[in-house]
Write a structure and sequence with these properties.
binds S-adenosylmethionine, Methyltransferase, Cobalt-precorrin-4 Transmethylase, Domain 2, five-stranded parallel β-sheet, Cobalt-precorrin-4 Transmethylase, domain 1
């Protein structure tokens, strides 16, 4: 054992208030801090007495190699990323460099990934509650990913009605990717779908702009921007972007918001898997073809076929039903 350690530290969006206690402690216990110059500046007041290795934007692998070299000398190294180190950050490239160098978890250099609030969390918090239903993130950077791969993903998630966070939406050289993303989204989503453009969240030049899908690409978007595109239920009210969790689908909410009627709390919807399957079987028994059912439910025919031919599950016992997961 060399006693060396690499800590992959997510420092959060940029302000110390949003850095975790563990991230701060990891930097404090490090002999060496490695990072992109801008991120090093964000933690400048935590670096007294440490060796600091500043690298340029495209030198990700160099950062990992330097970290491994120092850790092999027995040093504790904090390799810092903005947000979360595992989200378009240094965690992946570092493990790749380590594996390439023959490292194993037993080989004397310990590795710890210290989680942080990613841009998607930070930007969502600033604009309201846009991620309360299914969401995903897509990076528009085509420096390492071919455009057709990115375009296919954009098209798929736009069709599937996810709330989407676009990372790396635009840079000095990459100006058209956001226009293409907009074009693909408009194939599936309404032009007035709410969009929030958040620049430099929790940093000095923070700026938030609400717009719509139709006007998204006209906004002031740069390297430090994350673009949040709502789903078909997302709305903006009193300057807050909110994606409903679905309570209004399940219960009838009375004017004063106090009385709940309709479906049962703690149980799947009547259109959840069990209820839906039951109705699907009934419709099929009444003569609706697999192809017609596939079209109606916008699902592949082979999936409908598989559901129809699967053995009928027994209704869960009262005991099993009492362990239903909670909804918030
Ligand atoms: C290489 S990715 C790094 C992501 C980072 N690891 C994270 O978890 O947030 C850089 C992209 O993250 C987003 N980003 C990072 N910090 C941000 C901030 N403070 N405000 C808005 N977007 C940010 C931008 O989309 C930027 O182009």
């Amino acid at each position: 054992m060399t006693g060396g350690k690499i800590m992959l530290v997510g420092i959060g969006p940029g302000s110390h208030d949003h850095m975790t206690h563990r991230a701060r402690a990891a930097i404090a216990e490090a002999d060496v801090v490695v990072g992109y110059v801008t991120y090093i500046k964000l933690v400048a007041d935590l670096l007294d007495g440490k060796e600091v290795i500043r690298k340029g934007m495209t030198e990700e692998l160099d950062r990992a190699v330097s970290a491994l070299e120092r850790a092999r000398e027995g040093k504790k190294v904090a390799l810092i990323s903005s947000g979360d180190a595992g989200v378009y950050g240094m965690a992946g490239p570092t493990y790749e460099v380590l594996f390439q160098a023959g490292w194993t978890p037993e080989s004397g250099v310990a590795v710890e990934v210290v989680p942080g609030a990613s841009a998607i969390n930070a930007c969502a918090a600033l604009v309201g509650a846009p991620l309360t239903h299914d969401f995903c993130s897509i990076s528009l950077s085509d420096l390492l990913t071919p455009w057709p791969v990115i375009a296919r993903r954009l098209d798929a998630v736009a069709a599937a009605d996810f709330v989407v966070a676009l990372y790396n939406p635009k840079s000095g050289r990459r100006t058209q990717q956001i226009v293409e993303a907009q074009r693909l989204f408009l194939r599936h989503r309404r032009a007035d779908t709410p969009v929030a453009v958040v620049k430099s969240a929790y940093r000095r030049r923070e700026r938030i702009e609400f717009t719509t899908l139709e006007h998204m690409s006209e906004c002031d978007i740069g390297m430090l921007t994350t673009v949040l595109i709502g789903n078909s239920h997302t709305f903006v009210r009193h300057g807050l972007m909110v994606t409903p969790r679905g309570y209004a689908n399940k219960y009838e909410l009375h004017g004063d918001g106090s009385t709940l009627e309709g479906e049962k709390p703690g149980r799947s919807l009547s259109t959840g898997l069990l209820g839906w399957t039951e109705n699907l079987r009934l419709d099929h028994a009444e003569g609706q073809s697999v192809a017609a059912l596939a079209l109606r439910h916008k699902l592949p025919a082979d999936y409908i076929e598989a559901v129809l031919t699967a053995p009928v599950e027994e209704t869960p016992t009262a005991e099993a039903a009492s362990t239903e997961d909670s909804e918030a």
